[in-house]
Write the structure tokens for this entry.
Amino acid sequence: MIKATNLVKKFKDFVAVDDISLKVNKGEILAFLGPNGAGKTTTIKMFTTLLHPTSGEILINNADPVKNSDAVRRSFGIIFQDPSLDEELTAYENMEIHAVLYGVKKTLRKQRIEHLLKFVELWDRKDELVKKFSGGMKRRLEIARGLTHHPQILFLDEPTLGLDPQTRNHIWEYIKKLNKEEKMTVFFSTHYMEEAERVADRIIIIDHGKIVGEGTATELKNQTKTDNLEDAFLALTGRTIRDEDATGMDRLRAARRHWRH
Amino acid sequence: MSAIYILWLRQIKRYLRSKARIVGSLGQPLLFFAALGFGFGPIYEKAGGGNYLEFLAPGIIAMSIMFTAVFSGIEMIWDRQFGFLKETFVAPVSRLRIVIGRTLGGATVAMLQGIVVLILTTIAGFRLDNYWALPLALLMMFIVALLFTALGTCIGSVLEDMQGFQLISNFLIMPIFFLSGALFPLQGLPKAMTIIASADPLAYGVDAMRYFLTGSIHFGLVLDLSILFTITAILLAFSSYLFSKIEM
């Protein structure tokens, strides 16, 4: 379902993704782990047509994201790390725009939006503006939105950041259900080790743009002779704390926060 | 329902909901109209220029359209920050259709703003020369809206954050407005000013609007229309190109 061969992404002199190759089968749930700045988001952006690789090849559902971006875009859904909702619109309108952009038929549209909003328990607030929602509610709405077009592959970039255990559990139950019933392939990044261990069929760990570990949670623990995944992760990636450089976008966010308060 | 329509509708909804923005952006044109119109009116009339309110109104309408339109385009920076742009970029919709939807939406909003200002200037004493020419005046307003939304989209595509906004405002938007002949007649100006004004796209927009609203014209309709259509087409093409090059 997902196949990358010798994938490289350079930003000027900085090599964000350094020659990685990986494969995810249909119906598999894969956890993509790594410290901050390891190249997780860059890799996901290349898989989802937002960035072009410097070199190497990607196939998503047998299509190339660079040459055949529309076919690729139709086959996946994505829950981004940062929010991507229109806060001046209502929850329902956000769902509707998504459904129209993905060409979901009108009759099906209403039914699916209702079903998904009820599932994330936002149906009774569907006509409220998103800017009035709490962080957790926005997250739930984004997850519901990403599922509206029934994607074959679901990418999630740290989807449960800032959610309470109840919500996290609820959402993963639903994703696992879709994974079983519809054979939906799931590719997610997370910093929660117990989440990776509990949900994923297989784990890939990257650091400094390279794959440093791959296998089931048990295999990784055996390889590193540790008794939990967190220790295995630290054994593979070291204990230094990583910082990411502030981008123009981070500065803008800070300015915006300043304006609002 | 198509992607272009839903993205257009989104801009309209956002505009109609932001009451503060509507009221706020009417303040400036009304202040200009009242202060300059009633302030300079008597001198203008004494100098033999005729009714200044009548001369000024099309200029003020053009101003509010231009400011709203450029801002709609630049507003894309917020969409980038709030991530909504990314949401549209991963959808199976071409960048061209996204930029068409956005530009039509921005231009419609600017046009609505222009209509509100037209109504308000009428209340303040402005009289249309010929009611039959109103549809053509509205068409001119829409072309001006389209031209400047495309310009705003060009700027929004290359600016990464709002820090450059002040620069753009002071060195591009304000000069375009003040040198366009929106506030004063272009006849008998110093040579340098004449040259600058004739390189200002808004000058032709104001001129064409003034013709259909009040009957007076400076450059001539053929020149106005050919320049407006050409520049609008170029900016639309250029903004689509820049928009397609945005990387997240």
Observations:
- The interface with chain A takes residues 1-3, 5-7, 10, 13-14, 17-18, 77-84, 86-94, 160-163, 247-248 of chain B (CB under 8 Å).
- The mean pLDDT of chain B is 93.
- Residues 13 and 69 of chain B are 16 Å apart (CA to CA).
